[in-house]
């Protein structure tokens, strides 16, 4: 298995997400992460999907996705030529003894503290998967109370845009 | 896409029924205010739809009111929504036009599901319109509510949920366009009851906005060149023709290419009729119950030119062992079919009609050809044809041979008739023993294998082709699933002919039980045939519906019954052909093995080195079609087309 990052430009229509997710489910592929939001073109959304599949079935899924009427474009993003980030919010148990240690880790990972109470900190990090995984690993020992992660967000490097040659209304 | 919107199909701009179109056309600045229900009917009329099959219910009731005033739209009231779906399929498959089915919400809509799935598997242009509960009640488990858009998502090409009257014309026009272009398929339009009831300005024509839908790919010239080169250099090519050629009505182009190259042709279950059975290059049907020459030609081929075919498991057998020495040229309008099962050396995405035409030109342009193209290959194929002609062993229990009955139906009714079949043994025999000469003559449920397809599909075909004889070749199991549509046929003067190949059992399942389950017949006896209690009695059933019922038990009565059916056109006819339950479909490739293991008859596999003509044939063997393929046709004839160049 290998990890692939697909960026989909789709029409913002009801049921679209079900159609996309259903296609993966039908073919037995597990979606590792999924992020949906608007694109710079009105009426078009952008979906970033991370899947763990071999090349051949991936090609088949890509072709099938392309057949969905509301899917306008699909691009596979190569990790070396892309910015790949995810957004993590993590709540960690602290007391007076552990708080400085946690803050040091936050500092090391260039994360941010976004909420403070005597018993806990909420830490935010926007980074690549490796750095977020590293942060979480370091925080584990203090007791992670709650964790929320976005799907991976991805964008190709350089001046090109996925919406080039896409109709704009 | 360079323009922001997809251009309207010609059908949308200029409806086939111009008269109906003109009177509705909106002129001036003030569009007419009409209800959503009226908009449904008007849009269908403007799209040129002339026939719809349906059954009303609460959530679609508003649409049924303006149907009473419809001038160019005929609604045919079915007895079960599945019947409406298959009728629309048969209508579409026989004519190439879009078939339309209407149902109410909840169970009405779910009753359409089988037909929608069937249309999806066989790429049938089907427009399904369903009523939905009030938008304010959606999601509350309201009476007769079902999320039909959700339910059908994996089995539709696309679907629309319409909650406002103003959106109806665009949704239906888009659905119609999507269903009928590219690789055809079913499209569902689900319309809430409030959208049908409220009024909105009716604006026509609509501007389709489908930026993600690019049904037609530009054919890649270099790939076509490469395919022509392979055809020219191949020693053992086969044109592997699938249902896409029927859907694209690319039969003329296929014939031209076959004649030009002299390559043998096999027509899959979905492609029967795409290439004339009378043509000496036609080896018949490949696959699990294909002819030995067709199966082995594919297996021994060094070049497969697959056109509108999808390497279905019923064709390939064990796919990894299928045609092991062959390079593959794969022509399909759907890019997702290419490389799905078998890697193609030369993939060509495009409409079969266009690609086959281009391929013939490219082949012609290559010029230099051997004087006797594929001579050794044809020698091998002719030898297989001599040794393993299509035929059957007569029954030993004194009951009718189903193969004989079906052969006679085809011979007496001729190639201009339409033949719709159910699913099972009778389907295979109808595919094998009726000779098809034109696309649209053979309708069946190939991909989904839907028992019960025949009667409603024949009904739909008869509506679209009223001047043709339309047969439903059905089994006693299949017939009991959808024979309620006989009522629809009688009431609406749709005189189809139904041949029930009555072996009193679920025959194909029984065959597998004979072969693979030691003859343990678990739940396959239906008690409809010889020596049984005959529940139901199909003759009485036909009569109860007001159809003509005939029972045939002796071979000498077969022809007379068929002729009586052909002469009877004031009502449907049902012939109960009481046949032997022991007849089996041969040849056969057992599931999950290589096609090289094709068995000609029970425990009789063709031997690879034994090529002595006639050695495989049982002395009693019946070969019903001596004029075609079996008694060939000299080498010179077979390659006549090639020589004409």
TrEMBL record, chain A:
Function statement: Catalyzes the conversion of 2 pyruvate molecules into acetolactate in the first common step of the biosynthetic pathway of the branched-amino acids such as leucine, isoleucine, and valine.
Keywords: Amino-acid biosynthesis, Branched-chain amino acid biosynthesis, Transferase
Family indicated by similarity: Belongs to the acetolactate synthase small subunit family.
GO molecular function, one term: acetolactate synthase activity
Domain ACT: 5-79
Entry protein name: Acetolactate synthase small subunit
Superkingdom, taxonomy of origin: Bacteria
Gene3D superfamilies, alphabetized: 3.30.70.260, ACT-like. Chain A, domain 2
GO annotation terms (biological process): isoleucine biosynthetic process; L-valine biosynthetic process
CC per GO annotation: cytosol
UniProtKB/TrEMBL annotation, chain B:
Organism of this sequence: Amnibacterium setariae
One record GO biological process: L-valine biosynthetic process
Thiamine pyrophosphate enzyme central domain residues: 224-359
Similarity comment text for this entry: Belongs to the TPP enzyme family.
Boundaries of every Thiamine pyrophosphate enzyme N-terminal TPP-binding domain copy: 35-149
Presence of the UniProt keyword Transmembrane in the record: no
InterPro entries, per the entry: Acetolactate_synth_lsu, AHAS_TPP, DHS-like_NAD/FAD-binding_dom, THDP-binding, Thiamin_PyroP_enz_cen_dom, Thiamin_PyroP_enz_TPP-bd_dom, TPP-bd_CS, TPP_enz
Region span, Disordered: 1-31, 603-645
Protein name: Acetolactate synthase
UniProt keyword annotations, A-Z: Amino-acid biosynthesis, Branched-chain amino acid biosynthesis, FAD, Flavoprotein, Magnesium, Metal-binding, Thiamine pyrophosphate, Transferase
């Amino acid at each position: 298995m290998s990890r692939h990052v697909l960026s989909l430009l789709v029409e913002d229509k009801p049921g679209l997400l079900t159609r996309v997710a259903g296609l993966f489910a039908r073919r037995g592929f597990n979606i590792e992460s999924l992020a949906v939001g608007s694109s710079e073109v009105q009426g078009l959304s952008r979906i970033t999907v991370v899947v763990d599949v071999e090349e051949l079935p991936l090609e088949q899924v890509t072709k099938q996705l392309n057949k969905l009427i509301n899917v306008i474009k699909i691009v596979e993003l190569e990790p070396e030529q892309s910015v790949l980030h995810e957004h993590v919010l993590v709540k960690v148990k602290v007391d007076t003894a552990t708080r400085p240690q946690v803050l040091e880790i936050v500092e090391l990972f260039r994360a941010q503290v976004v909420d403070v109470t005597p018993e806990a900190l909420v830490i935010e990090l926007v980074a690549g998967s490796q750095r977020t995984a590293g942060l979480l690993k370091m925080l584990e020992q203090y007791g992670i109370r709650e964790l929320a992660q976005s799907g991976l967000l991805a964008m190709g490097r350089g001046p090109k845009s996925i919406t080039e040659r896409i109709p704009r209304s | 896409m360079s323009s922001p919107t997809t251009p309207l199909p010609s059908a949308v701009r200029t409806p086939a029924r111009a008269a109906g179109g003109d009177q509705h056309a909106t002129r001036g600045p003030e569009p007419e205010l009409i209800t959503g229900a009226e908009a449904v009917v008007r849009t269908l009329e403007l799209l040129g739809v002339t026939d719809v099959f349906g059954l009303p219910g609460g959530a679609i009731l508003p649409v049924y009111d303006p149907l009473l005033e419809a001038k160019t739209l005929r609604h045919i009231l079915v007895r079960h929504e599945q019947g409406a779906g298959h009728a629309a399929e048969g209508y579409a498959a026989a004519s190439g036009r879009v078939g339309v089915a209407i149902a109410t919400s909840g169970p009405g809509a779910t009753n359409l599901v089988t037909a929608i799935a069937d249309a999806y598997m066989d790429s049938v242009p089907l427009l399904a319109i369903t009523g939905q509960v009030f938008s304010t009640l959606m999601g509350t488990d309201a009476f007769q509510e079902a999320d039909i858009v959700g339910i059908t998502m994996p089995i539709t090409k696309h679907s629309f949920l319409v909650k406002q009257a103003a959106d109806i014309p665009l949704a239906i026009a888009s659905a119609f366009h999507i269903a009928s272009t590219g690789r055809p398929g079913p499209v569902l339009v689900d319309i809430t009851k409030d959208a049908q009831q409220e009024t909105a300005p009716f604006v026509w024509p609509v501007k389709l906005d489908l930026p993600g839908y690019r049904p037609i790919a530009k054919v890649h010239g270099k790939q076509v060149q490469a395919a022509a080169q392979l055809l020219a250099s191949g020693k053992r090519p086969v044109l592997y023709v699938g249902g896409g050629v029927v859907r694209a009505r690319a039969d003329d182009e296929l014939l031209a290419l076959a004649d030009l190259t002299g390559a043998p042709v096999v027509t899959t279950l979905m492609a029967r009729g795409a290439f004339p059975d009378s043509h000496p290059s036609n080896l018949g049907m490949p696959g699990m119950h294909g002819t030995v020459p067709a199966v082995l030609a594919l297996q021994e081929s060094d070049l497969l030119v697959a056109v509108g075919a999808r390497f279905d498991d019923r064709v390939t057998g064990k796919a990894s062992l299928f045609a092991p020495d062959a390079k593959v040229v794969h022509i399909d309008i759907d890019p997702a079919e290419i490389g799905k099962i078998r890697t193609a050396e030369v993939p060509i995405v495009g409409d079969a009609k266009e690609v086959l035409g281009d391929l013939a030109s490219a082949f012609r342009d290559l010029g230099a050809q051997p004087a006797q193209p594929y001579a050794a290959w044809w020698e091998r194929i002719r030898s297989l044809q001599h040794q393993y002609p299509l035929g059957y062993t007569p029954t030993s229990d004194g009951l009718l041979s189903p193969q004989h009955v079906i052969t006679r139906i085809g011979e007496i009714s001729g190639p201009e008739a339409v033949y719709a079949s159910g699913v099972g043994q009778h389907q295979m025999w109808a595919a094998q023993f009726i000779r098809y000469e034109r696309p649209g003559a053979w309708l069946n449920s190939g991909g989904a294998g839907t028992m019960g397809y025949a009667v409603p599909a024949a009904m739909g075909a008869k509506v679209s082709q009223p001047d043709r004889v339309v047969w439903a070749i059905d089994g006693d199991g299949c017939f009991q699933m959808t024979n309620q549509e006989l009522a629809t046929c009688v009431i609406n003067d749709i005189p189809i002919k139904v041949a029930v190949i009555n072996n009193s059992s679920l025959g194909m399942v029984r065959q597998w039980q004979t072969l693979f389950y030691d003859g343990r017949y678990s739940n396959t006896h239906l008690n409809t045939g010889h020596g049984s209690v005959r529940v139901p009695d199909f003759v009485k059933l036909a009569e109860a519906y007001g159809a003509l019922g005939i029972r045939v038990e002796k071979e000498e009565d077969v022809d007379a019954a068929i002729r009586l059916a052909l002469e009877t056109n004031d009502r449907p006819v049902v012939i109960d052909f009481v046949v032997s339950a022991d007849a089996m479909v041969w040849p056969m490739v057992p599931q999950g093995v290589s096609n090289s293991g094709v068995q000609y008859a029970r425990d009789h596999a063709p031997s690879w080195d034994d090529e002595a003509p006639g050695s495989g044939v049982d002395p009693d063997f019946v070969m019903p079609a001596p004029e075609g393929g079996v008694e060939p046709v000299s080498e010179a004839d077979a390659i006549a087309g090639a020589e004409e160049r």
